[in-house]
Write a structure and sequence with these properties.
alpha/beta; eight-stranded parallel beta sheet; globular
Length: 314
């Protein structure tokens, strides 16, 4: 049953899940079941579906529906599911939002328009309201990703004003490195702020984020779970050590992401290391060559990844 925004709250780690493809770039939905069981083994309570990590912009509308339906089917209400519905065509975003509510998702999220970009905070609020109103019983999260969208308004101001016009506004997925602006969002009453920059998650949590949506939570959840516990216990030096592991790994990811056409392609290459081969990325990104894959694995081994106890292996 859909959750009301008043009692829905994301905390801890929320993996932004990958989309499984076969070698021809077609959906391989049969891998979602084992993927779900792996996440549950790692004590993960919620996921973010069809977002950047899931290559949502490279999927058709119908594919996005099928992916969401499969996650809902295999999860059997054991995990909260946030459906990302942002696309270029606002009518399709509305259709996906309505589908998410009818299919049984727990919440929805959306990016801003990506081509005809909003020119003011008011325009952005109206865009979000148009989507959120279609699924009034689902909590709505705005996905703030200015480095990719080019839409960068003050989010403290956006949240304060949007709360007055969007009854089911639950929070924001804040994927900007502007922590001053993020703190302003945290100050807003009853606004769920989940941080989206894995490489500086420690800073985001210490400054008030309630949880985190990220790609690396898929293959190194135990690293971040330890970090969160160290923060709670006041053991900041130990928390920094866990964060630095993520930092070093992200540097390797950025290097290969620039070769493969996007960081998601490099991130997806980590999944076989924890027992889940989810296939190649979809074009315009590409998979690693055999030589690149060998060098990639060597660099990951040199980091010490396999000694980090990064995840309960599938």
């Amino acid at each position: 049953m859909a959750k009301n925004s008043a009692d829905f709250w994301l905390e801890g780690l929320v993996p932004a899940v990958f989309t499984p493809f076969d070698q021809n770039g077609e959906l391989e939905l049969s891998k979602i079941g084992p993927y779900c069981e792996y996440l549950l083994k790692n004590n993960l309570k919620a996921i973010y579906v069809n977002g950047t990590t899931g290559e949502g912009k490279s999927l058709t509308k119908d594919e996005r529906k099928r992916i969401l339906e499969e996650w809902i089917r295999v999860s059997r209400r054991r995990i909260k599911i946030v459906a990302h519905v942002g696309v270029l065509n606002v009518r399709e975003s509305k259709e996906l939002a309505k589908h998410a509510e009818e299919a049984g998702a727990d919440a929805l999220a959306s990016l801003p328009p990506l081509f005809f970009k909003p020119q003011s905070t008011d325009t952005l609020i109206e865009h979000c309201k148009a989507i959120a109103d279609v699924a009034p019983h689902l909590p709505f999260y705005y996905y703030h990703l200015p480095i990719m969208t080019g839409v960068e308004f003050n989010m403290e101001d956006f949240i304060r004003r949007a709360k007055e016009k969007i009854p089911n506004l639950a929070g924001i997925k804040f994927s900007s490195k502007d922590l001053v602006d993020m703190i302003g969002c945290v100050f807003q009453e009853k606004v769920n702020v989940v941080y989206g920059c894995d490489e500086q998650l420690l800073a985001g949590l210490v400054t008030g984020a309630h949880g985190a949506v990220g790609s690396t939570h898929n293959f190194m959840p135990l690293v971040f779970q330890r970090m969160i516990e160290y923060i709670k216990n006041g053991e900041l030096q130990k928390a920094r050590e866990e964060q630095m592991r993520a930092q070093r790994l992200c540097r390797v990811m950025y290097k290969y992401g620039s070769l493969l056409g996007g960081n998601v392609a490099a991130l997806k290459s980590f999944m076989p290391l924890v027992g889940l081969d989810l296939g190649p990325p979809r074009e315009p990104m590409r998979a690693m060559t055999d030589n690149e894959a060998k060098q990639f694995r060597k660099e990951i081994e040199d980091l010490g990844f396999f000694s980090w106890n990064a995840a309960v292996i599938s």
